[in-house]
């Protein structure tokens, strides 16, 4: 009978709705109620006592905490915040380490944050309360790094850094979107003089790339996102924007100066490519205008900085094709450049394979072109042009089934080229409707 809280949850007692407890709008979380009954007893008494017979002795067993308090707080004016605390603060504080009270904890944190912003003279009092409730979350169960980023940092610089480091450890793939960018933004806004703390975190190899991407994303949001409060604060703070650039430069240099093999070829390529991307864009503008000598000058400048950039090598091969007027010569140049391109530059290598495929297509070597387009798609599957080229080459080879399949895929990726529309129309007009 001494069932654990976990077992009670497994049996379906977690978050049970109720309508018979003495409270208006009763939509309450029963976990604190169950937890209080079982958790208050110690030792053998835990087995002996099955129910609570007196409300005065175990008052916390009769705390009924409504759902969606977080949403309730969003609707409150500043003048209503103290009334909210009078009603809910004590009953929530009696129940630490309850995962189902996530929203209740967060609601209190937001109230403390707003009161601290409203009354600077009492800011430290509200910060202490905020830090207390943020530590109520069970170990490893805090997942509000993004929407609570500024609150975490405001409560304590140390706590904000702790949350950021924990996020880097638990989300290896894209921590920047899970709250990393928001935490970095908030930290630099509130504690710009402690920017080197972010730099120190980045020097731990397992944290380096996640920190770099978080800072990059924070900068991108500041420059391009209009409906993000932290991004707006960042953009308006020139000093912090300069700190972000400084951090990016130092972390990038740390990566580039690391021993061979410390970071992947792709990670190194991404940093080196950023340094030449503006020149590369300008090079394509010159190419459109047929100002070939200017393209050559830019390419010489790019290769002096980074000779393995696949996209620059692609531009070089395309320039060679246009200047020579020969698809075969352009193909040979692309094949040579493939040997030079960084293995970490999947996008650039994909474009070189695509150029080879286009040259082979022009030369009427469709079977060989097919292989090149397949390699391009494998390296850069998100690019619809390679899928469209596969549709076209299958069409030329007489394989209408494969052509139709790739045309449909290209359309689903947003490709609206004439050949894709034609193939799709021709391969679907006689097919039965689903």
Automatic annotation (TrEMBL):
Keywords of the record: Repeat, TPR repeat
Gene3D superfamilies, per the entry: Tetratricopeptide repeat domain
Superkingdom classification of source: Bacteria
Pfam families: TPR_2
Ranges of the TPR repeats in the UniProt entry: 350-383
Protein name as catalogued: Tetratricopeptide repeat protein
Organism: Leptospira interrogans serovar Manilae
